[in-house]
């Protein structure tokens, strides 16, 4: 009854006709077009973003091709092999097809292998723009030891050597529910991240309470902020503008409100901002710079009741005092943010 064994390509009609060729070319062209024109990613504002986007677009093209192939075959089969009226006979017994199975195993394997190599290459390339790689890992290890041996934040204000010449080092602290940015080697503390366009930036990321995640979609970068462990990000912003910084790790009831901005300035604007902050810091040095302990530092700041309103209104001059007001105010956040 089931005596007919697989006969290979004769059972499944392996594509050879002109129509199949045209469909194949059409699917390929559509896939390539969708890969380049999907419009799913936001503005690219860092040097590293281009490589991530190329990888994403390649995956998008492959996914589109597979989608069209599988769904197209499904739709075609629904109509082409529809049961004829009054046809109650059994379908032909099909037992497999070794060449076909080899092909549909080998092609996805090759695609997955290529994607794995390509994405690892991008990962290494993006991180080597900063200070990852083996040297960085050693650096990170030593920092972890440092952090465990000392008071976590006491170390953050001290001048650290820059792994890259000319890079701007900023120590980032995530806490429920805000980000604070400590400019290395200065007393500047900010609730917004100001960086100059075209200059490499290195972030040393830490968390005060629970795990957060520092995410800037426009930079295509995300990194966990873990209490007691310093993590790192390196990037070179290259497009002036304001971009959101989002906490990407569910960190508590007001996680959804844990947002701030990165402001990519032109080098001139950055110098202006930097100078103004240096002056401001010097003016209030008795209050802010008296201690290197960030917790004491924050406790000494005076809350302002309308700070959250300012934050929500995207006031460009949100600073650490306002952030502190946000943190110390009893009911600063409203439900719509959740
Ligand atoms: Cu968070």
TrEMBL record:
The lineage of its organism: Bacteria, Bacillati, Cyanobacteriota, Cyanophyceae, Acaryochloridales. One of its GO terms (molecular function) is cytochrome-c oxidase activity. It comes from Acaryochloris thomasi RCC1774. One of its GO terms (biological process) is ATP synthesis coupled electron transport. This is Cytochrome c oxidase subunit 2. The chain crosses the membrane at residues 12-35, 55-81, 102-120. Pfam families: COX2, COX2_TM. Subunits I and II form the functional core of the enzyme complex. Electrons originating in cytochrome c are transferred via heme a and Cu(A) to the binuclear center formed by heme a3 and Cu(B). Gene3D superfamilies: 1.10.287.90, Cupredoxins - blue copper proteins. Residues 32-130 form the Cytochrome oxidase subunit II transmembrane region profile domain. Residues 165-276 form the Cytochrome oxidase subunit II copper A binding domain.
């Amino acid at each position: 009854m089931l005596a007919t064994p697989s006969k290979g390509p004769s059972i499944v009609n392996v594509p050879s006709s002109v129509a199949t060729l045209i469909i194949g070319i059409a699917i390929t062209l559509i896939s390539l077009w969708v890969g380049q024109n999907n419009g799913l990613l936001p503005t690219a504002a860092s040097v590293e973003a281009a490589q991530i986007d190329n990888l994403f677009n390649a995956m998008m093209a492959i996914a589109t091709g597979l989608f069209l192939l599988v769904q197209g075959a499904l739709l075609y089969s629904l109509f082409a092999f529809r049961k004829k009226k009054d046809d109650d006979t059994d379908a032909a017994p099909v037992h497999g097809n070794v060449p076909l199975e080899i092909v549909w195993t080998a092609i996805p394997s090759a695609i997955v292998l290529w994607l794995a190599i390509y994405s690892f290459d991008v990962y290494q390339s993006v991180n080597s723009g900063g200070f990852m790689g083996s040297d960085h890992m050693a650096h990170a290890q030593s920092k972890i030891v440092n952090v465990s041996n000392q008071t976590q934040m006491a170390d953050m204000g001290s001048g650290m050597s820059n792994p890259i010449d000319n890079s701007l080092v900023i120590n980032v602290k995530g806490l429920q529910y805000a980000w604070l940015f400590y400019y290395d080697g200065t007393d500047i503390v900010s609730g917004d991240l100001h960086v100059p366009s075209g200059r490499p930036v290195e972030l040393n990321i830490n968390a005060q309470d629970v795990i957060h995640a520092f995410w800037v979609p426009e930079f295509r970068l995300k990194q966990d902020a873990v209490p007691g462990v310093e993590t790192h990000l390196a990037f070179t912003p290259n497009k002036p503008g304001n971009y959101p910084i989002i906490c990407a790790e569910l960190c508590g009831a007001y996680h959804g409100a844990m947002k701030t901005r990165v402001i990519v300035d032109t080098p001139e604007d950055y110098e202006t901002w930097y100078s103004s902050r240096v002056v401001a810091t010097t003016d209030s040095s008795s209050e802010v710079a008296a201690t290197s302990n960030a917790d004491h530092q924050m406790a000494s700041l005076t809350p302002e009741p309308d700070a959250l309103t300012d934050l929500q209104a995207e006031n460009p001059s949100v600073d650490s005092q306002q952030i502190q007001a946000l943190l110390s105010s009893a009911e600063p956040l409203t439900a719509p943010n959740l």
